[in-house]
Records
---
Amino acid sequence: MKIEGEGKLLRIFLGELDKFEGKPLYEVIVRKARELKLAGATVFRGVEGFGAKSVIHKAKFLELSEDLPIVIEIVDSEKKITEVIPIFDELISKTNCGVLITIEKAEVIKYTAGK
């Protein structure tokens, strides 16, 4: 089955070492998105980037890299994305992390099994 329509893309930019109550913040956000029954969430680990403090974080050849850039992408309806922003805001505000959230329009084409 194919579902098409307009939705919203929520992107959350953070660092790999950002924590919420001792757990990786990106894991907490993904689990919260699942609990809230959002359509899905994907975490991307960057190879290089910088944030609010302008510190370059990058993967180095033959070294274990820590605190690489992380991007979480969540796509769902405008209504659902609007509803979760205050929930994510409350969660993130309890951390001492530099986080950036962007929202943009997304044309959604979703293929599902079945009729």
Note: The two ends are 5 Å apart (CA to CA).
---
Amino acid sequence: EVLEPRRQRRLARERDPIEATFDLHGYGRFDAEDRLKAFLAGAQGRGLRAVLVITGQGRRGGGVIRASIHEWLHAPALRGVVSGFATAHRRHGGEGAIYITLKQKAGA
């Protein structure tokens, strides 16, 4: 799901808190995917609502992680975790980072 523009603006302007940040720099594609899933599930389990994931730009803008993250976020494993995502504001990393909002854990 694409993050609603108003929510994206609130995160960019830091009116809504970014409660955790995770940096995927230096991980291989498969390791990065596993670590992202674990990070998001853990963040949801702690009741967090919005996080920032840094993918990096990749060499010459062709980063494998950056190219794959949308596919990962749409994966069935994260369907109950991720409510939306959007490219971060320049101050938070721009094209090399992504805001992710999390669903509240069922029964929370």
Note: The beta strands are 20-23, 50-54, 82-87, 97-102.
